[in-house]
Design brief:
By secondary structure, the chain is α/β, with parallel strands linked by helices. The protein has helices at 48-55, 64-81, 98-106, 116-124, 141-149, 159-169, 210-218, 240-258, 285-302; strands at residues 34-35, 41-43, 46-47, 86-91, 110-113, 132-134, 153-156, 176-181, 223-229, 265-267, 309-312.
Length: 314
């Protein structure tokens, strides 16, 4: 039996330089990938050819160990590198199912949803509502209503979100929990379709709108601004953009407080790349979290801020 932590390129030529159980984003193969005594490829102790015969093809096979190790890598790295409170929030658009939700919830992560379907799946799968955030730059009344009714935090992207939420909040005794998303104006080297931090991104308010939006929300008794959110893109191998993001978010935090808000959270989004081909060399989860955490702690110290809760969205 081949050890799950030392799968070598000689046994699996396409696996590159082996499998790293501590940072699954750096692997081409799932952690439990092995060849059995007959040379058959298996994952999680299951022979893939037998699964294909049983269920037909195409077939998606998920490795529970890889998923759990990814969750633990983010969770533990945040606790190790960030001296304040923190939460890793699973981006469920990657795979939204009851089983995945239950696994992520059991590992102590939160979850972000971008549709009513994902939100319902999260709730049915046992994710506590206080650990769910609703994203989306074109949220429907149905989606926002579902979030409000269940005490889910809404990431506000635009004025339309605010208008709909104000209507839905009428007559409610509890305020709606919000994160305000804005574009940080940070460029990164990734495909143009998955860049989200540049100024003309369709996600979030422009930076020059921040003061106006924050001033408006300060006068809304139905709204509780829990924090701020920014995201620079996906499949990013660089670390400098994430260092820069900490200062931008900390400045927005200071502005929010000066306008009467009491935010507690700063959400840096996600974006850490994964290894699609052997030549890819993304940072490890621990390295990425360390850069994000240390940059945020330094940015807050420079502005005499108490450390906020740090959220990231892998």
């Amino acid at each position: 039996m081949v050890s799950t932590s030392t799968v070598a390129s000689s046994s699996l030529p396409w696996a590159g330089d082996g499998v790293d159980p501590t940072s699954p984003n750096r692997n081409l193969a799932p952690i439990t990938t092995e060849l059995d005594s007959q040379g058959r490829l298996q994952v999680g102790g299951c022979v893939l050819s037998e699964l294909a015969q049983r269920y037909g093809t195409p077939l998606y096979v998920l490795d529970e160990e890889s998923l759990r190790q990814s969750c633990r890598a983010y969770r533990d790295a945040l606790q190790r590198h960030y001296p304040g409170p923190s939460l890793a929030v699973y981006a469920s658009k990657a795979n939204s199912s009851l089983a995945i939700t239950a696994l992520v919830a059991a590992e102590g992560l939160g979850l972000d949803a971008v549709s009513a379907g994902e939100l319902l799946t999260a709730l049915e799968g046992g994710m506590p509502p206080e650990r769910i955030v609703l994203h989306g730059n074109n949220k429907s009344t149905e989606e926002l209503s579902l979030a409000v009714q269940n005490g889910v935090t809404v990431v506000v992207d635009n004025w339309h979100d605010i208008e709909l939420l104000q209507e839905l909040a009428e007559g409610r005794s509890e305020a709606v929990s919000l994160l305000l998303r804005f574009t940080p104006g940070i460029e990164c080297h990734t495909h143009e379709y998955i860049r989200t931090g540049h100024l003309d991104s369709k996600f979030g308010f422009d930076p020059d709108q921040l003061e106006q939006v924050l001033t408006h929300l300060a006068g809304c008794s139905w709204a509780q601004l829990k924090g701020l959110h920014a995201h620079i893109g996906s499949q990013i191998f660089e670390l400098d953009p994430h260092r820069d993001l900490a200062g931008v978010l900390a400045d927005a935090f200071v502005l929010a407080r000066s306008l009467g808000h009491q935010p507690t959270d700063l959400n840096v989004g996600g974006g850490l790349g994964i290894r699609y081909v052997a030549s890819d060399d993304p940072p490890s989860i621990d390295t990425w979290v360390q850069v994000v955490a240390e940059s945020m702690a330094a940015a807050c110290k420079a502005r005499n801020l108490e450390l906020p809760r740090l959220l990231c969205e892998p």
